[in-house]
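JOB MANIFEST
job_type = single_chain_structure
chain_count = 1
residues = 168
[input]
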Amino acid sequence: MILSDPTMPGARYRNIIVVNEEPSIHASFDLYLQPDETEIATASGNADESLVLDFADTRNFSILHADEGNSAVQIASKRATGNRPIQVAFIDLKTGNLDGTETIKLLQEANPRIIFAITSSNPPEALETISDALGPVPVEIVAKPLDGETVHRVAARMCCRWEQLHGL
């Protein structure tokens, strides 16, 4: 499996951090964005080899995991000045020792280039919570329960947006 191969067009920066205390959510992101060869074959069915390779190439995200906000901030701080900064943070609003809004504030301090997606079972409430706590912060809300197509589409779109804004 290819993970953020800098020689691959459009894949230079596809670095994501998932901040959630539920191990099943982390496993879902791995499945949706980093499928192994068996999962690729299953998803592609009887497709020809070029389609299988295309499917694999679009799912080449490098995913970092944190079960709470402080861990995410430490990871983001270490990677902020390197050649593989975090582009996108998928954050649950109710995670561990810091709530999602505090995690976003600290991540913005650690690396102001990170783009945020909030996972929530109540998107309108999540948007209101973010707006009340942070003001007009550009975030995308991803409704739970998560599905692979939506997670992949949001992750890919947000990574492309990051590259348009900050491409190095």
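[summary]
The two ends are 24 Å apart (CA to CA).
Confidence is low (pLDDT under 50) at residues 1-11, 46-56.
exit_status = 0
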